[in-house]
Amino acid sequence: AYVVTENCIKCKYQDCVEVCPVDCFYEGENFLVINPDECIDCGVCEPECPAEAIFPDSDPKAAAWTDANRQYAGSWPNITRKGDAPADADEWKGKPDKTKLLSP
Ligand code: SF4
Ligand code: F3S
User: Fold this and answer.
1) Which of 62, 65, 77, 93 has the most C-beta neighbours closer than 10 Å?
2) How confident is the model at residue 13, as a pLDDT?
3) Distance 93 CA to ligand 2 centre (A)
4) Across-strand partners of 4?
5) Which of 4, 30, 45 to mutate to test the pocket of ligand 2 (most atoms within 8 A of CB)?
């Protein structure tokens, strides 16, 4: 499965959601997650993300995020249409140490 990682926090561009053939993205206040149990590993969302936040769960960068994707996917609403990114999304792009800013 693919999962969303730290780079998405406060960027939330949402370019990923409409390309997913199985609609397995879920929306939090400032972050999106993939339900790794619904993802069919097609890989089409990965290059769509301007923040390079999406990785296969086999990637070391995703290791700490798979459980969080699964957990939040269980409580957040499904999202299938791209909404507006936060006004300051570009300012947060690529910033380190955003994990603590994730709104659960
Ligand atoms: Fe959806 Fe494919 Fe991305 Fe999985 S890899 S979340 S199925 S677009
Ligand atoms: Fe996040 Fe990238 Fe999608 S910033 S909302 S994973 S396009």
Assistant:
1) 65
2) 98
3) 10
4) 54
5) 4
Atom of ligand 2 nearest to the CA of 89: 4
**Would you state the structure tokens that stand for residue 6, as one six-digit string?**
């730290």
- CATH code of the domain in which 8 resides: 3.30.70.20
d(CA 44, CA 49): 10
CA separation, residue 15 to residues 35, 67, 96 (Å): 17, 23, 21
Q: Is the minimum distance from the CB of 12 to ligand 2 under 6 angstroms?
A: yes
**ipTM surpasses cut 0.95:** yes
pLDDT tens digit sequence for 21-68 = 999 999 999 999 999 999 999 999 999 999 999 999 999 999 999 999
In a domain, 64, yes or no: yes
- In the chain, how many domains are there? 1
Q: Determine the structural domain holding residue 59 and report its residue range.
A: 2-80
Measured from the CA of 54, which atom of ligand 1 is nearest?
Answer: 3
